[in-house]
Design brief:
It is built from five helices and four strands, in the order βαβαβαααβ. By secondary structure, it is α+β, with helices and mostly antiparallel strands. The protein has a single domain, classed as Vaccinia Virus protein VP39 (Rossmann fold), CATH 3.40.50.150. The chain is globular and about 60 Å long.
Length: 145
């Protein structure tokens, strides 16, 4: 297991790096991104899944591929990126997961796994927070000159 705040990766040691829901945990997303970019070979690609949830009083721009905290960090770094929008699929996933867990509650309890059930249900509570978005960011590292 690694610490996202202290990666210690060798320079130019990866052609591809994929981060799935981990950069939210970084104390300094910008520094962690710079560390990851340094670990990429010239022409390599960094892929990052980023999910944002907002309540009704927050600006909807925060849900856009260019308006969330991660995209603002990329803009500060002046990095190019492409996105794939998984927002609708993601919302459907959380809804299906909640329904399935509701149907399986008795089974979890019978197995003595109520704490696991509660933990999984708590993950689906993001639907109650408001509206969400999820994007895959594809960030290419330029070829060296």
């Amino acid at each position: 297991m690694a610490n996202v705040n202290v990666l210690g990766l060798e320079l130019a040691s990866f052609d591809r790096i994929l981060s799935i829901d981990t950069l939210h945990l970084a104390a300094d997303v910008r520094r962690t991104l710079v560390d990851l970019e340094g670990a990429l070979t010239a022409g390599g690609t960094l892929g990052v899944f980023w999910e944002t949830w907002i309540g009704p009083s927050r600006p909807r721009e925060m849900l856009s591929a260019s308006g969330n905290r991660f995209a603002r960090t990329l803009a500060e770094l002046r990095w190019r990126y492409e996105t794939v929008d998984f927002s609708d699929a993601n919302a459907g996933l959380w809804e299906r997961m909640r329904r399935a867990l509701d149907q399986m509650r008795t089974d979890f309890e019978r197995e003595g796994n109520r704490p696991l059930w509660e933990s999984l249900v708590s993950q689906t509570e993001r639907m109650d927070w408001g509206t969400g978005s999820r994007y895959l960011y594809r960030i290419p590292k330029p070829q060296s000159a």
